[in-house]
Design brief:
Layout: E1 2-4, E2 9-12, E3 18-22, H1 27-37, H2 41-57, E4 61-62, E5 66-71, E6 74-79, E7 87-90, H3 91-107, H4 109-115, E8 124-129, E9 135-140, H5 147-158, E10 164-166, E11 171-176, E12 179-186, E13 191-197
Parallel strand pairs: 1-3, 4-9
Antiparallel strand pairs: 2-3, 4-5, 5-6, 6-7, 8-9, 10-11, 11-12, 12-13
Helix pairs in contact: 2-3
Length: about 210
Amino acid sequence: MFDISEGIRFTLDEHPRLRLSVPVELRPLAAWLHTDAQANHGVLVEFGKGLRAAQLSGTQIIGNGWVIRPAPEGIELLPRYTGMDSFYVPDGVLWPVLEGIQGLLGGIDQQLRAEFPAPAHQVLRSVSREPDGSLRDHTYFPQALSERAVAEAGQQAWQSEETLIDESTGAWSGFWQGMEIAGYYDPASGQVQSYFPVMSPLSGVPAAAG
């Protein structure tokens, strides 16, 4: 799922789906970028604003697959579904990567919209405040899908021909009816532990809540 390289590189594949190449020690960062930050220009603009504010205020953010905890001159990523240790990302790595992906998407936005149809399913993303003051920043399946349909979508995405996995982090990505669904699995058992929709680079940005 993540190629190994000396530096950090990012592009989109034919679906279009974010593809990351990173040094081997940065695979946890790649997993977080794919499942939590996500490759949508408008979302990344708002996400970046919220993350900077959270760093200044010391506010924790609960994402799809990771919890972001502000740390001195960076952030600490705590996995929600795997047995990995927490992972520190210094600001000198964090912000160039986020801004680089944002720049890539902004630069090819019109080209993407000319080449690909609009997504058939509108993925929802909202930010809300928890009772303890933490922020919850999650993506959600379209409200028209029943609980059973969501479960079937997750299973079919896991079994799709486009599925990619990363054994070191347990991250995975697949497709169902053109919608990317990503999550985490247990490499030891091969069992899926979580899945959630990924906002397409072609999706509009829903209004934040909370």
